[in-house]
Amino acid sequence: MESPLQSRDSEGDGRSDNRWSLWNRLRNSDTFPQTLSLRRTLRRRRKQNLRYWTSKLRDIMNMEERKWVVQIKEELKRNGISSVHEKEQWKRHSIYKIPSRVTALNEKAYKPQAVSFGPYHHGEKHLKDMEDHKHRALLHFLKRCEKPIELIFNCVDEVAEELRGSYNPVEQIWMQDRARFVQMMIVDGCFMLEILRVNNDGIADEYAENDPVFGEHGKLNVMPYIKRDMLMLENQLPFTVLRILIEVQNGRNQGEELVMKEILKFFSPGTPETRTLGKCMHVLDVYRKSLIHQGPTHRTRVSTPKRRRRLWLSEEEHGNDEIIRSATELHDAGIRFRKSRTNSLGDVSFGDGLLRLPTLVVDDTTEYMFLNLIAFERLHAEAGNDVTSYIFFMDTIIDSEMYVALLHRKGILVNALGSDKAVAKLFNSLSKDIAVDRQGVLDVVRMSLSNYCKKPWNIWRANLIHTYFRNPWAIVSLVAAVFLFALTIVQTVYTIAQYYQPPSPNSSSSFLKPSPKSWHP
User: Fold this and answer.
1) pLDDT digits over 238-289, tens only?
2) What pLDDT score was predicted for residue 192?
3) Which InterPro entries does the UniProt entry name for this protein (predicted)?
4) pLDDT single digits (tens) 149-203
């Protein structure tokens, strides 16, 4: 019988011999049978314990399954889930955590760089420096409005559930600690109102001239980053917070209108009156509505060439994806470009060969702004698709820097970004993975442009320009060919005219030389 103590990894013959002798003494001892019996007992008990805990685990899993089944049955007994309840639940949401499938293309564009507003980026390491300035802004706000902090806390606490419902999703820490959530809303709201007030009305007396945030130095070097962070979808505050703080400060119920005016003055000077924007949910929503406040100032008519004319499209025609030509190809087809009457992104129209587009300033903040607006329209069901449709439309007519230069000459694009190539690359990147509303106003413009370019004369014109007017040498060759062709035609006509011209009655035969006549003085 082989010893179980025999060396598994022998280090030498001497050690192996010692183990063998130890095994022989153990086997010949009186306790050997008891030892073997004990080992068998322990082995049997281990097997029994394993079967016991396996059975226990199976019972627990079955219990969880039964509990889940019972829960589903109870929910069904309560008439399941109500569509009305779901509608109200989704209607409460207005600030969203952007999914990774969206942020993967440009993560930096959706993350604040200077300050956090709301719960999603609260406490992040690179934003903690601004927390002291938030606290200072709260103290300045309370000192100026002369209202007790308890009053403000109670007013915000009354709508705490509504405020938490604005965020989708909400982390568990903010659901469990209501007081901390209310405190964050008050501090962030007071800081945002102070930012708006100082930038719109100038530096107040309570702030020092060398204040790192609210002073002139801060307005030049810090405010641009705060302004950009205020347009991040994940960095929004519910409009209700700002409204309550303004109403507590002023002591009257007109906070919504006042806040909206301050926001528009900060982001979009010269925008129309606030009553045209309707009810807004947060700063980003106010800014979005200010960009699309005006619809088309000219009517766009869609016609089907040669067969029939009508104003609107059928479902079959909407299903056909017509590709819009680039700006240069549209220009070659005889389409002219002109600035719209307003700067609203919705003021796009086409008629009588004239495409009207709003003026847009492209700078370093354009990419961040548009990406967050597109994300908001993607995630909020009632936001519409206006900004997304505009970006998609501009991307279709801008393929390279040549098209940017054309729109810049027409005053439609104001390039504050740098090169025309950078602007073209920006629009091409903004339109990645976006969905477009095929029933919108811009789709009517798209179909009208496509039908216009399909007309025979416009096709011939575009081919002629594309073939012969792309470079100076082609133009010179065409002019020379036309000139020579014209000379050839003139020469041919002159020759034919001489051939068919009847002879003069006083003239002699062309084969006889006329005799000279005598000259009489």
Assistant:
1) 999 999 999 999 887 777 888 999 999 999 876 666 566 888 999 999 999 9
2) 96
3) DUF247_pln
4) 999 999 999 999 999 999 999 999 999 999 999 999 999 999 999 999 998 877 6
* Residue with tokens 């690179």, as numbered in its chain: 126
* Pairing between β-strand 95-96 and β-strand 167-168 as defined by DSSP bridges: parallel
Distance CA 22, CA 11 (A): 17
Instruction: Supply 226's token pair.
Output: 């705060």
> Length of the chain in residues, anyone?
521
Pairwise CA distance, residues 246 & 283, whole Å: 15
Is omega for the bond preceding 516 within 30 degrees of 0, making it cis? no
225-259 burial, b if ≥16 CB within 10 A, otherwise e? ebebbbbbbbbbbbbbbbbbbbbbbeeeeebbebb
Rounded-to-integer distance, Cα 374 and Cα 292, Å: 13
pLDDT at 314: 38
Phi, psi (rounded to 5 degrees) for 10: -65, 135
CA 318 – CA 203 distance, rounded (Å)? 54
Structure tokens at 107: 């993560």
Predicted local distance difference test score (pLDDT) of residue 243 = 94
Radius of gyration for the chain, computed over Cα atoms and rounded to the nearest angstrom = 41
Amino acid residing at 318: H
Q: Which residue has the tokens 């694009």?
A: 413
Q: What is the rounded distance in angstroms from the CA atom of residue 45 to the CA atom of residue 442?
A: 77
Closest by Cα among 446, 291, 288, 290 to 375? 288
* Tokens describing residue 124: 């992040």
Report the predicted TM-score, pTM, of the whole model to 2 decimal places: 0.74
Q: How confident is residue 58, by pLDDT bands cut at 50, 70 and 90?
A: confident
Query: Token digits for 288?
Result: 């979005």
**pLDDT of res. 311:** 35
Annotate 477-514 with b (16+ C-beta within 10 A) or e (fewer): eeeeeeeeeeeeeeeeeeeeeeeeeeeeeeeeeeeeee
Q: How many CB atoms are located within 10 Å of the residue 370 CB?
A: 25
The residues facing 167 across adjacent strands are: 95
Q: Which two tokens stand for residue 315?
A: 């479902």
Rounded-to-integer distance, Cα 410 and Cα 54, Å? 77
**Amino acid identity for residue 494 in this structure:** Y
